[in-house]
Amino acid sequence: MSSEPPPRESLDHLISALCARLPEERLIRDPLRRLAYGTDASFYRMVPSLVVRPENEQELVSVIETCREKGWPMTFRAAGTSLSGQAVTDGVLIQLHQGWRHAAVLDDGARIRLDPGVIGARANELLAPYGRKIGPDPASISSCMMGGIAANNASGMCCGTAHNSYHTLDSLRVVLLDGSILDTSDSDSVAAFRQSHAPLVEGLERISANVRTDVDLARRIKHKYRLKNTTGYALNSLIDFRDGVDILAHLMIGSEGTLGCLTSLTYRTVPEPPCKAAALMLFPDLSSACRATMVLRGTSVAAVELMDRAALRAVDHAPGMPENLRSLPPGATALLVDVRGENDAAVEHASEEVQQVLEGITTLEPIAFTTNPDTYALYWKVRKGLFPAVGAVRQVGTTVVIEDVAFPIECLEQGVAALTEAFHRHGYQDVILFGHALEGNLHFVFPQGFEKPGEKERYAALMKDVAQLVAVEFGGSLKAEHGTGRNMAPFVELEWGAEAYALMWQIKALFDPCHLLNPEVMLSRNPSLHLENLKPLPAADEIVDHCIECGFCELVCPSRDLTLTPRQRIVLVRERARLEALQASGNQVLNDTEQAWLAAYEDHSGYDLDTTCAADGMCSTRCPVDINTGELVLKMRQERLQGRAMLARRIGHHFSGATRFARTGLRLQWIGRQLLGHRAMSAISQGMHRLSGGQLPQWIPVLPKAAPIKLLGRVGARGRPDKVVYFPSCATRVLGGDGSSRAVMDITLKLLDKAGYDVIIPAMPGHLCCGMAFSSKGMANEAIHKARELNRELLIASQNGRYPILFDTSPCSLQAEDHLDARLKVQEPVAFAHDHLLPRLELTPLNERVAVHVTCSSHRKGLADRFIALAQACARDVVVPEDIACCGFAGDKGLRVPELNASALQTLAQTVEGCAFGVSNSRTCEMGLTQHSGIAYYSIFDLLDRVSLPARA
């Protein structure tokens, strides 16, 4: 392969060539999505010229070959949670998402084969039944993907250096720049590769032999990898292996997509002890904490995480955190110490060992380990969310910088002191320190604005001093686990020295002589690269201004494979705010590209930003600072639909008529499907849906019959002492059974009767609504009006909160809790069934496999465990699809935007194969789940009613 890069052809020529080799819809060209998809978690911003989404290896090969032929640089992207700028580009961004999520557990959990698009936490979920896990455990493991974990050699809290990707790699499959594929687990592939790529294999072996004969260089390499180190290429592979293929495989780990694209990874797994305990230890100062860390290295602790006072201040108001954190002295420092074992006795022994070795070191509070699962999980949740949480307290308009260094552990105390002094010398007073203390690995985080004069220069001076201090004076690592990226590329030679740096360039030339694979990442001749293409984070809306674009929210978003994620929606809103602010200032004229972008936003953003957003709030459950992007979308929706306020008011005023109209429509569609059949009904409905521009809902075969609303009129008091107010949602008052199931109202009333409750129905039930039907459409004023109506009637029915109020639909109960009188004891259906109905019923569980879908509202209310426990009480085998959070039906979006529901549930049918049926606790969600699963979904109340009898007195 020539070392001269081919001349770059025009983007149109590239696109034309790619369209001949894969479907055109996999090529994203519009400026809005290119900006959104091109954003990662780093503080760099580059907009790709083209985004390509190959769905299999052959398509990937075609993309790589075409880009090479046309002279276009390419960058590979998995989750985009990386922090050092290694996943941004102005060339071609190749995303490995859909089609790259396969996983297979091998050898009873001893190994696991993973695609690059598998979430790290998903790998551990698959391994959990075997008592195993993957070695790497980065804080972002619930969001980052295996491609990024391997490409960055990410490690984490308990991983150390022994269990990172480099040391637990079994085999891999990689596509190189020339389109060739090497599978190191396949002897035929390896043999063929040795022949076809002899110069590459022999070149690596030659470099390895030269390094091993250079005693000083070999000694330096061994020293560097005594620490956590991801600065530059994995030069330890040149010493650890002699065979060129083995060297190649291990060079790929931590190469950040600059040598090839990983398409499959097989890991040797590590044990996951079942019993755990943690202690949040408080020390008077950093020095004491560092000394404690040195002592703990001689024990069997699994992890020691350091958090300085500023880090603790950022999280001390988190729910469940000890109140004494708020009153700690200024220099206080915490160590989160984790011990693990095969049984409780082993954990207790490890805890006692820790307390004994720390007896001579002063702590602010007595050391206390907890085995309580909730407290344990809380400690780790807070620790893993530190970076985003810290970023959220920055001044709006500034970015947040995170650096990641490692000191030799024996120099940790002195290194921390020197690092702190350097920050203060350059005027950085609000730096936060935390990290993996056992490895001497520290993260320092600080807000940084680049807009004011002199700020970029101040940051440059700081980084120069930090690099000199860490890499030269202390012999540490400038990048311990976050990857070199663009951020540290100018300092690789400083850390490694000229000789080792030259080796890295030799390695790069063997794989990528044209410098087309992620150019400027890891290796760069540009000394100011880390100061270029800095990401703006302008004020846009107070709902989302604290977002640092970490991407933790993306996994639970139902539109992530269809249009945008919460992070990407925020990116677009911020860019609009930035450009509009520039226009308003009068100090700068927008260029043609910026003007075209704004025009595209005004003309085309509605579908991606608004229409396909379920506004379910699930993003807030993953966001470290509880940002609900759905609230922003609803706010924008309200502004856009202000002109429909009077229509909303009329519908609200005649709500019982509106629900009667809906039931009439269901009766007519039921007649129509009997006369015309499903195919004709679908064709007619789809045509009307298209002609109306999506305004008319689309008919789907799972639409039920009309609900038997007259049931509510037959409810009467029986003189029982236990009473409950039952409020049937408007969805269950409209949507009845489907021929094979009963209406939710009927089931609920029978269950309550079976459990011995007198049921009270509020007056005018047909007219009442919690308001969600209006708020989800941006009609906030009418939503508030309906909530007030409901509040008044529920107070009357419950005798001012004397009796609990059961909602039969989970989302409505969540909406009600936010808007109703505090005296009202609102009961979500799953919580009520688990806490109040189960003790009153005698169950005979079904000997069947049942699928469970935990709705967004149940997740947000923290009811997932109770939901699963309730289902397990009713059926012998329960399946919970792990990769589906929100179903995307979102009220009536399953009818108006059916592609959202289809995209969110694309893997459901495969996951629930073999289940007799499924259960949930939202009637509309159950429709969408039935539509896309191949099995029927019913209310969880239906299952409970099937298996229960009144408990014997």
Break the fold down into its secondary structure elements and pairings.
Layout: H1 11-19, E1 27-28, H2 31-37, E2 50-52, H3 57-70, E3 74-77, E4 92-95, E5 103-106, E6 111-114, H4 120-127, E7 132-133, H5 146-151, H6 165-168, E8 169-175, E9 181-183, H7 187-196, H8 198-213, H9 215-224, H10 237-240, H11 244-252, E10 261-268, E11 270-271, E12 275-283, H12 286-296, E13 303-307, H13 309-315, E14 333-341, H14 344-357, H15 373-384, H16 386-392, E15 399-406, H17 412-425, E16 432-436, E17 441-448, H18 455-473, H19 492-496, H20 498-511, H21 566-585, H22 592-611, H23 618-622, H24 629-640, H25 645-653, H26 655-691, E18 723-727, H27 730-734, H28 744-754, E19 758-760, H29 772-775, H30 780-797, E20 805-807, H31 810-819, E21 826-827, H32 829-837, E22 841-843, E23 846-852, H33 856-860, H34 864-874, E24 875-879, H35 893-896, H36 898-904, H37 908-911, E25 917-920, H38 923-933, E26 937-939, H39 940-946, E27 948-950
Parallel strand pairs: 2-4, 3-4, 18-19, 18-20, 20-21, 23-24, 23-25, 25-26
Antiparallel strand pairs: 1-2, 5-6, 6-10, 7-11, 8-9, 8-10, 12-14, 13-14, 13-16, 15-17, 16-17, 22-27
